[in-house]
Design brief:
Layout lengths: L2 H10 L10 H12 L2 E2 L17 H7 L1 E6 L4 E5 L5 H11 L3 E5 L2 H12 L9 H14 L4 E6 L4 E7 L2 E8 L1 H14 L12 E6 L10 E10 L2 E9 L15 H11 L4 E6 L6 H12 L6 E5 L10 E4 L8 H9 L5 E4 L5 H12 L3 E6 L6 H8 L4 H7 E13 L4 E4 L3 H6 L11 E4 L10 E12 L2 H8 L4 H10 L5 H10 L5 H7 L1
Parallel strand pairs: 1-4, 3-4, 11-15, 11-16, 12-13, 12-14, 14-15
Antiparallel strand pairs: 2-3, 5-6, 5-10, 6-7, 8-9, 9-10, 16-19, 17-18
Helix pairs in contact: 3-5, 6-7, 10-11, 11-13, 13-15, 15-16, 17-18
The structure holds zinc ion (ZN).
The site of zinc ion has 9 residues, from loops.
Length: about 500
């Protein structure tokens, strides 16, 4: 029997229209039909310890919530009290006597949502729940926090060390409340749900008011199931990073410091998204910062606030594009210009022009290796002659995940693995390491990341080659001949030292 078949019975009992029934009457009539007791379950406190015997997945599937359990006798309420199939499945799965209580379907639904949502969070106020999420992001040094709506509810994912980790999800209503509150905190328009918005929020732990505040960039994106939010943690501590603290090999550090002191010219940092390019550039600026020097940046967006540096956010929506911003900031008589990213011909041209007219220009590009930056700039319409004159160097970088020290173990690599790494020795020569996974690293086997670099220096010979239009390959070979250590070689060094895994080396170099 289901609720559709039951309606005629209600009519026989004298209720012409069940929708007009009071919840109490509905419950009592239903309970009488089912042969059990009724309760409004208001108030009612969920016993989350029942999750051990009554998994939330089963609750969701049967649309039933457990109420009490006494002497192995479980009391449940179903959203549809006439759903005999669900009841039979529960009896089969739980293997213990089950008693049904009839309660208003809306109330059972509410309790079910609480029961199935993350931990006991459902009883914590939205503000506290949100605080827990932000706190976790700061504590785990996550770079991003994702809130993603789906048909069933909301998924929470943290990006830690470059990899997404999923966390217990929560209900639709809770998700909507969280999104609204986050938008409010980020000074966004709450009513606007069909257009994407960008904002920024400051967060300080409520437990420790003296702790430094954390800043998040908040971006909304409308999806078919509602607004998805991504919070990027803007790590202020990164601004304290000086070049000395980045993991440069000594020779690279020395060459880089010399290069940065050149009175004019172009310095480029390359790498994929999330490889730490911005942190490196900021560290360079921090190093160059001096009261006698004027530094101006054009960024999309401004990720960290740098003291003593004039930072201009790019805003395409109001016509403040990179080329236009560069044009205006050149009139501000800067010594050093940082262009967040060179991604179009106009920006490339302006950057080259600025470095030719006596400025130090620092920028980033999306290319695989350092030598590739030259081909990329030429593709974007840069002139080989100008480039040969102004280019000082290109730094390519990657971030490799480092092995969790708590569960690190050695193993002997097979020949196939060695071959794919380009190593021709016998397996006996090598011990590689990997993390087995433990509580300390949340079973990932990794903890933290380390940067590797390859520094391409524009020596006289290299400048000549650029002038002559030499190929990417030729430029790279020449640089290696002159002492450039390629990314792959640096990665293999970390691998052999037991700092990272073969998987990371293969993925990133
Ligand atoms: Zn571990």
């Amino acid at each position: 029997m289901n609720s559709k078949e039951i309606l005629p019975l209600f009519q026989e009992l004298g209720f012409a229209d069940t929708s007009s029934m009071k919840p109490q009457d509905f419950c009592q009539a239903t309970a009488a039909l089912v042969g059990t007791d009724a309760s409004l379950l208001d108030p009612f406190e969920i016993d989350f310890s029942l999750k051990k015997v009554f998994p939330p997945a089963l609750a969701a599937r049967c649309q039933a919530v457990p109420l009490t359990r006494e002497e192995h006798h479980l009391c449940v309420a179903l959203v549809d009290p006439f759903d005999g199939e669900a009841l039979a499945l529960l009896r089969f799965m739980l293997d213990e006597p089950i008693e049904q209580i009839v309660a208003p379907p809306e109330r059972v639904k509410e309790l079910l949502e609480c029961y199935c949502s993350s931990e006991s969070n459902s009883f914590t106020p939205v503000a506290d729940h949100l605080e827990q999420l932000l706190e976790h992001a700061v504590a785990t040094q996550a770079s991003d926090l994702h809130l993603e709506p789906s048909e069933q509810g909301w998924t929470i994912r943290y990006r830690i060390d470059g990899v997404l980790q999923e966390h217990p999800s929560f209900s639709k209503s809770r998700g909507l409340a969280m999104v609204s509150r986050l938008k409010l905190m980020a000074h966004l328009d709450i009513a606007e749900q069909r257009r994407s918005q960008d904002g920024r929020l400051e967060y300080r732990s409520r437990n420790d008011r003296n702790s430094p505040s954390s800043a998040f960039r908040v971006a909304t994106l409308p999806t078919q199931f509602g607004e998805s939010l991504v919070l990027r943690l803007l790590d202020r501590r990164a601004t304290c990073l000086d070049l000395e603290q980045l993991s440069f090999p000594p020779t690279v550090r020395k060459a880089l410091l010399e290069l940065l002191l050149e009175p004019y010219g172009l310095f480029i940092v390359t790498g994929p998204t999330g490889s730490g390019k911005t942190t490196t550039l900021y560290s360079c600026l921090q190093h160059l910062h001096h009261e006698t020097i004027k530094i101006v940046t054009a960024e999309d967006p401004v990720e960290y606030e740098l003291e003593g540096v004039l930072q201009i956010p790019i805003n395409e929506a109001i016509g403040l594009s990179f080329p236009r911003t560069l044009r205006s900031l050149l009139r501000h008589d800067p010594d050093i210009i940082m262009v967040g990213e060179t991604r179009d011909a106009a920006t490339a041209k302006m950057a080259l022009q600025a470095s030719l007219t006596g400025h130090r220009v620092l920028t980033t590009l999306h290319t695989g290796d350092a030598a590739g930056a030259i081909a990329r700039l030429l593709e974007m319409g840069g002139e080989a002659t100008t480039l040969a004159t102004v280019l000082r160097g290109v730094l390519a970088q990657r971030l490799l995940r480092t092995i969790c020290p708590a569960c690190r173990m050695a193993y002997q690599p097979g020949e196939k693995l060695l071959a794919s790494l380009g190593l021709s020795h016998t397996p006996n020569d090598f011990h590689f390491y990997r993390g087995e996974g433990c509580d300390a690293c949340q079973q990932t086997g990794y903890a933290g990341r380390q940067a590797i670099f390859e520094l391409f220096l524009a020596t006289d010979e290299i400048q000549n080659l650029i002038h002559q239009g030499a190929s990417h390959l030729l430029l790279r070979e020449k640089a290696i001949e002159q002492g450039m250590v390629p990314l792959r070689a640096e990665a293999l060094r970390l691998l052999c030292e037991g700092i990272t895994t073969a998987e990371e080396v293969l993925q990133w170099t």
